[in-house]
Amino acid sequence: MKTSRLEQKSIYLSISGTLFLAILGLTFGLVIQSAAVMLDGFFNVINFVMALATLWISRLLTRPDGKKFQFGYTGFTPLLNLCKGLLVLALSLFAFISAVGALFHGGRKFNPGTAVIYAAIAACTCLLIAIIQTAIAKKTGSPIVSVDSKNWMINGFISLSVGIVFSVVTIIKNTSFAWFVPYADPTIVTILVMLALPIPAKVVLESLNQLLLGAPSASLQNRINDLLKIATTKFPCANNYLRMTEVGQAIYLHLYWLLPHDNKLDSIETVDVMRHQINDLVKQEFPNVTLDIIFTQDDQWFTIMNPR
After folding, report:
1. Which of 10, 85, 90, 254 would bridge with 203, disulfide CB 3.0–4.6 Å?
2. Domains of the chain in sequence order
3. Percent of the chain scored above 70 by pLDDT?
4. Residue-level pLDDT at 20
5. Buried b (16+ CB within 10 A) or exposed e, 187-199
6. Are 4 and 58 in contact (CB under 8 A)?
7. Residue 148 to residue 136: CA distance in whole angstroms
8. Are 186 and 174 within 8 A, CB to CB?
């Protein structure tokens, strides 16, 4: 429950922060006619809507399994991250096309001095929230908060970069480089989109992998396989085969365990003891694991179920 409360506090923090920055960005963007600032404002509008959805999903995750969702609600986490990633990708591509068009049509006029004030406020807000969210993500292990903390960090560095560039533009507008001033805003948008685009793309791919029940990362697979190798040295095992997937915070393991033919089981309790000890071994490192173990001595059935 403590973890759940921390997660919800982090979401409330995100909602407050994104609402503040959305209003700030759209207001400054309209006043100074800056597409870069407007883009930042629209990003925060998306983050605000997603933060509200995140709050709803975090409450869903605390519910017990039901008749409709018999495996729980963990699938909503990658679904939310997928929607967030797709929205950011779509907005980024739109902004990129618009900025490139402006570069070929004489740029855009705007007030870089006022933009510096906006960037300073936005950068400080984003980086402060990112630090708090990162600390909460480490305590809770929540993928929702983890993705959120990365987004805040990205937003913070984007705002900081924009502030630095606008400061330079403010300095050069009264020099021989003044011709560049109208091109500064679309140039910043183009560069920022090109730099930031891989991040939502990665979130989309990871979320799709989880929704399609793909295998988790290679490092996670290797660590779990190492734990099972330890188990095979403690208990009789002729062969084993493991299927695994990761959905949100949950890890699902489906283990087929082929017992040697010369192993005579005294009772079903003996198998239960093995199951409990293997489960405890894995859960010591991965408490969010759901492990199903199927014991068998039927070689043919084992091969049919595990053709690889």
Report:
1. 85
2. 2-211 (1.20.1510.10), 218-305 (3.30.70.1350)
3. 98
4. 93
5. bbbbbbbeebeeb
6. yes
7. 11
8. no
A 10 A CB-CB count for 275 gives 18
DSSP the chain: -HHHHHHHHHHHHHHHHHHHHHHHHHHHHHHHT-HHHHHHHHHHHHHHHHHHHHHHHHHHTTSPP-SS-TT-STTHHHHHHHHHHHHHHHHHHHHHHHHHHHHTTT-----HHHHHHHHHHHHHHHHHHHHHHHHHHHHH--HHHHHHHHHHHHHHHHHHHHHHHHHHHHHHTTSTTGGGHHHHHHHHHHHHHHHHTHHHHHHHHHHHHHHTT----HHHHHHHHHHHHHHHHHS--SEEEEEEEEETTEEEEEEEEE--TT-----HHHHHHHHHHHHHHHHTT-TTEEEEEEEE--HHHHHHH---
* pLDDT tens per residue across span 60-107: 777 777 777 777 778 888 888 888 888 888 888 888 888 888 888 787
Residue 254's alpha-carbon distances to 154, 251, 257, in angstroms, are 37, 10, 10
Q: In whole numbers, what is the pLDDT of the chain averaged over residues? A: 83
Task: For residue 5, give both structure tokens.
Answer: 């409360």
- Model confidence pLDDT, tens digit, residues 291-301: 898 888 888 88
Burial of 39 (0-12, 13-18, 19+ CB in 10 A): buried
Task: Report the distance separating Cα 66 and Cα 114, nearest Å.
Answer: 53
CA-to-CA distance for 83 and 88, rounded, in angstroms?
9
| Paired sense of beta strands 239-247 and 250-258, if any | antiparallel
Contact indicator for 98, 35 with CB cutoff of 8 Å: yes
Residue type, 204: V
Q: What is the pTM of this model?
A: 0.71
Of how many residues is the chain composed?
308
Q: Rounded CA gap, 177 and 100, in Å?
A: 21
Query: Looking only at Cα atoms, what is the longest distance across the chain?
Result: 91
